[in-house]
Amino acid sequence: MTIKPPVKKRTLVFFLIPEFTLLPFSAAVETLRIANRMLGYKAYDWRLTSADGQKVYSSSGIALEVDSSLADERRNLSGEQRPSMVLICSGINVESFNNKSVFAFLRETYNRGVSVGSLCTGAHVLAQAGLLNGKRCAIHWENLPGFAEAFPRAEVYADLYEVDGNLYTCAGGTASLDMMLNLIGQDFGETLVNRVCEQQLTDRVRNPHDRQRLPLRARLGVQNNKVLQIIELMESNLSEPLSLIDIADSVDLSRRQIERLFSQEMGRSPARYYLEIRLDRARHLLVQSSMPIVEVAVACGFVSASHFSKCYREVYNRSPQQERAERKLVSNTPRTLVPA
After folding, report:
1. pLDDT tens digits for 5-54?
2. Distance between CA 105 and CA 103 in Å, rounded?
3. How far, CA to CA in Å, does 14 sit from each of 68, 76, 288?
4. Separation of alpha carbons 88 and 247, rounded Å
5. Residues 125-157 as b or e (16 or more Cβ within 10 Å = b)
6. What is the pTM of this model?
7. Which residues, at least 6 apart from 102, have a Cβ–Cβ distance to it below 8 Å?
């Protein structure tokens, strides 16, 4: 079998944002490395970059040295080092990242025909740059509520990854592996993808629209199909909660039957469970966004800020204001890191 001459297929730039998550980053790089090994030549090349060219600390405190700075990559767009793709790697506290030079670079990169993408919470940075308006994208499920409220023009989904033209986004974790396998499949076909999977001990190539989280049955340990159906209805209607009568009509049960089932399966009333999942979403919005508390209340189906605060304190033993203040305190506290 004739092997093609060793010509680079793609050059990727991994742009590291402070507190990026190591798992999706390493999963992406290792997938490309294994593809090179299976091919027998360097079809994929990559380099790491940061805004100032200095090393970047991940969320685990491990620092990575980089190969270039933002200024270097601006020059590379017009030279021999022009990348095929730029991927934003971020993680926790991405909402606090605000670098207009980086946003401008991403827009310029995209406008010049270079693919742009993100790992984990990096879609937040792409959205801040204005690249996701009217575009399909994916982000980690924990960040999805705050993202959807902050960027209503982006079409965000709880998928493993999304490819919309030259925009590649994934949810983080091992989803970056799936997105890289998709890329490899585009370039070299299914045979190479299967060989890479065998090396990674990956038993299958996941569909981009596979769910990020465990199915409700596994996540909650609930087996009753009617209860699961009701919870799915609740989770789909948080900003405008359904009445128990509406839910009963939808699942063809009486109110008493639903109350009995929830008492048996969930150990609480359906109204209490519905309240708890609405408050859980509110908590995510409080710590992930700067939305006014009254808007958080409305987004989670509460008719007033005072009622929202009362319910929140009842469940979490602190007010929404305290929740947000504690989050800001943690975000602004310098991390103690071991010098390299």
Report:
1. 445 689 999 999 999 999 999 999 999 999 999 999 999 999 999 999 99
2. 5
3. 10, 14, 24
4. 42
5. bbbbbebbeebbbbbbbbbbbbbbbbbeebebb
6. 0.73
7. 15, 51, 70, 125, 129
